[in-house]
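Homework help board

Subject: predicted structure for assignment chain

Our instructor gave us this sequence and asked us to write out the predicted structure in token form, then describe one feature. I got the tokens but I'm not sure how to describe them. Can anyone check?
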Amino acid sequence: MSMFFVFIVSAQAQKTVNGTVNSGGLPLPGANVSAKGASVDTSTDIDGKFTLKVPENVTKLVVSFVGYTTKEVTITDGNMIIELSEESNALEEVVINVGYGTQKKSVVTGAISKVTAKDLENVPNGRVEQALQGRTAGVTIAMNAGQPGAGSTVRVRGITTLNDNNPLWVVDGVAVDPGALGALNQSDIESIEVLKDAASAAIYGAQSAAGVILVTTKKGKSGKLTVSYNGFEGVSSPERMLNLLNATQYGAIMNERYINGGGTGSVPYPDLGSR
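My token output:
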């Protein structure tokens, strides 16, 4: 009995691609060069050069490097010159109010927290100080009453003195009484900065011992006229109603208390007996 084994070996045609990866006219070592649609890649050497064998049907290369925009190029004959450009991270630098001016947050060394108008857009708060609740580290807000629009007790980093522990409120550069904050419309606020440490609040002197809260309101800007409206409505109701006595029941209990206490003479509410 004879057995025959047939082996079929297929070899895919390949081509060699050479090139140099630059950035600003200088070689870019360590850049990744891969064949689009095939699992072959390589890295550029110290001179930015690379050599890559790719299948014959591959027509494009993908070149990438950290911090640079990934580029897709068509394979050409000869030594390819590929230029990569740095990514333009248009990250908006956060600017905060430090009392005597504005600084970039990246260079500020003091303990300052900021709440912007965007953070307050969809939050229906009756008063300005309530807008800071849960948004600023180290600041505690406690409402003085359950009535809508009631004031709140604000503490920056707890109790810091035996005297007045209320922070100093400054609206557009003018120190104001905390009680007047109820007249400030939340929609008019551009930003709120909280100066927590002594270094940040030093320019306001002794009155800033318990911290400083800077409120900056919105101002007119050049450009097209825009009109916007937002409004909130709600209903407040007690969670649990107390079953209180009426006047007659109260009078009866007070008379009973008077008699059981050994009182002599007329009871506090003698007219109840005739009803």
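Reply (TA_rk): Your tokens look well-formed. For the description, you could write something like this. The chain is about 10% helix and 30% strand. That's the kind of observation they're looking for.
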